[in-house]
Amino acid sequence: MKLINLIPKAFCCLTEAIMGPTVYTIQASKNVEWTNKVKYINGSSLFYNICKPKMAGNEKLPLFIYIHGGGWVSGSPNYRKAIISKIAERGYVVLAIYYGLAPKYKFAPSIINMYKAIEHFKNSAQKSNVDFDSIFIGGESAGAHLSCVISTISTNDKYKEKFENLPCISNDLRIKGTFLICGIYNLDTTEMLGYPAMYSYIVAETGIEPGIRKKSEEGNIFSPLKYITSNFPPSVIVTAMGDKLQTEGFILVKKLKSLSVKCILRHGVGATAIHAFPVAQFLPETKRIMDDAFNFLNGLNLKQLN
């Protein structure tokens, strides 16, 4: 990886190290139980965390798959305790996946890793109180992008065919709804939005220079927006007034509505509405967004705790 591309990665990792144990952890719920760092590939550093409501008993709960952000080059479920626990508190078993970071784990390998994590979890003893007919997925920033990819694979066979060696669980994984926070959905437009160091992040994730990627048919695989169909799951799309990537969310909502896919847009406003702001659960604007998002998701015939 070139030195010029290492600088943004180093900045992201430093930000995570500072914000993860502080801002991203403040107001983490105490009404949940954790099972942490479950390895899903032997001999690797890849893991997932499980978070579920306390006193859940034997009731089957919906599964929420949380995919962390960090520009594809940084981040960890360990640094998303507030948002993960707040989702679990609302009556979900949350599977938070560490999928591996670019450039070591680029785009396709990270997708495969996520499927392997889901498959490992489904085959584990931890699955006992999970309703696998009610699976939701979401995340922030790069995590929203990867969540959108998984959802598109699940609803468009032509897109799925572009991926090699997907685990068997990809054949029957059905996503009931998505929660996409400040995400990236079409890399062709993302590069033009002026987000700091986006060029470096995209090259790290794709391994391809933008000019080459845009000219090749294979380059389209990185942009799930191009393959979304009317079968895409009902979705909550979150954007932010202070985020240069907000246009990505607007374009996604326009595409979903043109296909008659049920969706809502929630736009963060005010000084704290910056990129991926809902990971900071103590913000008043975050509470508004979370309440609206889960009112929508809970309306998709979810089973909830009383």
Which key phrases capture this entry?
306 residues, alpha/beta, Rossmann fold, 8 strands, 18% strand
What would you note in describing this structure?
Helix content is 34%, strand content 18%. The longest helix is centred in the N-terminal third of the chain and has 17 residues. It has an 8-stranded mixed beta sheet with strand order 1-2-4-3-5-6-7-8, sandwiched between helices. The termini are far apart. The protein has one domain: Rossmann fold (3-Layer(aba) Sandwich). The chain is an alpha/beta fold. Helix 1 packs across helix 7. The protein is built from 10 helices and 8 strands. The chain is globular, with a radius of gyration of 18 Å. The mean pLDDT is 93. The relative contact order is 0.14.
